[in-house]
Amino acid sequence: MSIHYMIKRSSPTRQHRMRYSVLYLLLSAALTATAQTSEPLVLDSLVNQAETAALAEPAQALTMDAAIRLALERNPNLAAARREIEAADAQILQGSLRPNPEFVYLAEDTRSVSRTSTAQLDVPIEMGGKRGARVDAATRNKSAALSELTARQLQIRASTMAAFFEVVAAQEQTALARDTLVLAMRASDIAGKRVTAGKISPVEEIKARVAEAGVRLSLTQAESELRNARRRLSSFWGNSSPRFTEVVGEIDRMPDLPTREVVQRRLAISPVLERAQQEVERRKSLVTVEQTKAVPDITFTLGMKRREDITRDQVMVGLSIPLPVFNRNQGNLLEALKREDKARDELAATKLTLYGDALQILERISARREETELLQKSLLPGAKWAYEAATIGFENGKFSFLEVLDAQRTYFSAKSQYLTALSALYTAITDLEGLLGGVEGISATSSAKE
């Protein structure tokens, strides 16, 4: 009863209750809206990032240089690598700071008459070059982050070039399918006219229509592959909906084949090898840091002690030196040394792997180049001439439609094989460029027309 009475006496007025109710409803609505829209807010952020990337992409023909520039400016992986460099700068700053002094106050006895008060300042002094070792280790870490950024940039550049050539090849495949469809429609019309004139059987017209339908299916597949290739290319600058109308590239131009001497010379300055070397240097600096920790630091103490019973102040001066009897940081030092040995072993393994991969890619480039030249100079012209001759002969009644259809399929297959070989050739070239950081004698970007 008493509790009920107290609540009743302390209850707010009607006007206050209305204010509280309104505030409660507003707060509840805000919390509900926040809970319900937390996920859409994240999605909106992703959409905004995609829109920003889309605005940076020109809604026109795209050259390789423009594609590489967009990828290097807006690729998310490169943004993460740049953040690591900023973090390394902060690590250098932190490593250069000296340890903070410590103020200590002690009071003995709670009675003011016999109380003894002590105030002292402890100043730690680092010994053994700890601060310099920390700064050097942080600087090595930044160098490693810079090497990582360079390696990622070259890899993104190579991958963008490969995706660019995929779009070029897909455009050529689509154009070939459209031209073949025009020829197939022409053959179907000719067959229909000859059936009407009673020169051939209606079965020949049916075969022509079936062949035309097969070409239409090939065109649909080529257009689908072109859309996917365009999305793969624009994804390197964070845009899932390509705005560029087409890519401008001269895929028929054959790149020069680098010699083994050029490859070996580039191996010595490869970004992959440099990154492994930077890791060795970073591990060496961490060994130095652990070695300095074995040297004990000195703490200098300066203070004042006052005794109330004799009303006298006493100056305090002290020096504290840890005795490295049991813990000399030997465990951490041994770990750092072993990790340095591991980095050296990884460097040696990287050299062997890098050289082997480069030679394999070089062999692949040579084989693809020979295949492409053979298709370009021998097979493709012959297949095209055979198809044109069969079409003219069919119009004049000298060949059957089956012969035309066979020549058409041969030409389409040869052209498709040629484009596939070209795409594989440029993919191998970009793989070598990503591995070595650019190769003298190979200029894949020169195949793009401005």
Per DSSP, what share of the residues sits in E-state strands of 2 or more residues?
Answer: 5-15%
The CATH topology? Outer membrane efflux proteins (OEP)
CATH superfamily: Outer membrane efflux proteins (OEP)
Please report the distance between the alpha carbons of the first and last residues.
91 Å
- Give me the secondary-structure category: alpha+beta
Strand order across the largest sheet: 1-2-3-4
Mean pLDDT: 80
CATH architecture: Up-down Bundle
Which geometry do the CA atoms define?
Answer: elongated
> What's the structural domain tally?
1
The top level CATH class name: Mainly Alpha
- Percent helix range: over 70%
Tally of individual helices? 10
The parts where pLDDT drops under 50 for at least 5 residues are 1-47, 439-450
Number of strands: 4
Description:
The protein has a single domain (42-100, 141-295, 337-447), classed as Outer membrane efflux proteins (OEP) (Up-down Bundle). It has helices spanning 2-10, 14-56, 64-74, 76-95, 130-196, 202-234, 260-267, 271-293, 330-395, 401-436, and strands spanning 102-108, 116-125, 298-307, 312-320. The protein is built from 10 helices and 4 strands; from the N terminus they run ααααββααααββαα. The relative contact order is 0.13. The protein has a 4-stranded antiparallel β-sheet, with no helix packed on it. Helix 4 packs antiparallel against helix 5, helix 5 packs antiparallel against helix 8 (271-293) and helix 7 packs antiparallel against helix 9 (330-395). The N and C termini lie far apart (91 Å). It is an alpha+beta fold.
